[in-house]
Amino acid sequence: MQGSDVKVVFALLIINKAGGLIYNRTFAPGLQKLDSNDYLILAGTFHGIHAISRSINPAPASPPPLPGHRKTPTTGIESVESSHFRMTCFQTSTGVKFLLFTSPEQPNTDTVVRRCYEIYGDYVIKNPFYSMEMPIRVEKFDRALGGYLVRP
């Protein structure tokens, strides 16, 4: 397998609904090293761009939903891709965003990021000592993510 065909998850960032970075972890080398301030800037900038992209979504051609039927929520940026990495965004119903950085060749990134969300639900949200919107410092969450995302 050539170096450019390697499928790898580089990093995961979790952004709270206010745009604050509450979790970041690097799983494999390959991206340029950023300091903590750069990660905070990246989280805040992406949060703003994501919000703007939701509001400039084209108006739907279909009629408004009937009373009692849910309107499909508009989404913002779901993926950004370059020749060196792909960033996949998954926004939860509570506004928390998961940014997954992978190699461009990594298949099923939407499935991978949703599994990260499930792990978050199991180990962070169900943790009675975790306060919502605060930085995530849950060792079991770190271990579960590492077990899922780190390739031997």
From TrEMBL:
Xref: Pfam families: Sybindin
Organism name: Acrodontium crateriforme
Keyword line: Endoplasmic reticulum, ER-Golgi transport, Golgi apparatus, Transport
Protein name (Swiss-Prot/TrEMBL): Trafficking protein particle complex subunit
GO cellular component: endoplasmic reticulum; Golgi apparatus; TRAPP complex
Record keyword Transport present: yes
Claim: Endoplasmic reticulum is one of the keywords in the record: yes
Subunit structure: Part of the multisubunit transport protein particle (TRAPP) complex.
Localization of this protein: Endoplasmic reticulum; Golgi apparatus, cis-Golgi network; Golgi apparatus
PANTHER family cross-referenced by the UniProt entry: TRAFFICKING PROTEIN PARTICLE COMPLEX SUBUNIT, TRAFFICKING PROTEIN PARTICLE COMPLEX SUBUNIT 4
Gene3D superfamilies: 3.30.450.70
Cleaved signal peptide residues: none
A single BP term in Gene Ontology: endoplasmic reticulum to Golgi vesicle-mediated transport
Record-stated family: Belongs to the TRAPP small subunits family. TRAPPC4 subfamily.
